[in-house]
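May I ask for whichever protein you like with its C-alpha cells?
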Amino acid sequence: MTDQSDKPESTSVEAAVRAELRRLKATTGVEGRAAVKLARQLDEAATRDAPIVSRELRIIMAAIRADSAAVAVDPVDELRAKRRDRRRSS
C-alpha cells in the first residue's frame, strides 16, 4: 500500500479550474487569476464558507466561458455568413 499524502491532489478544485482555464486559453487574465484564487479558497474553505466561495467561482467561470465562446467564432464562417447576407439582400 502506498502513502497518498506525498502525492499532489489532482482532484482538487484548483486543479480542475486550472485545467479548464488552459482549455479555454484564459489563464493570464484577471478573471482567470481570480478563478484560481477562488478555487484555492474553496479547497481550503471551512464547511460554512464553501457555498459562498463556490457561488462566486461559478459566476466567474460562467463569465470566462461566455467570453471564450464569443472569441471562438471561426473567421471563415463569419465571412461566409456576411457573403450569404449580402446575396440575400441583393
Q: What stands out?
A: DSSP finds four helices and no strands in the chain. The helical segments are 13-24, 30-44, 50-71, 75-89.
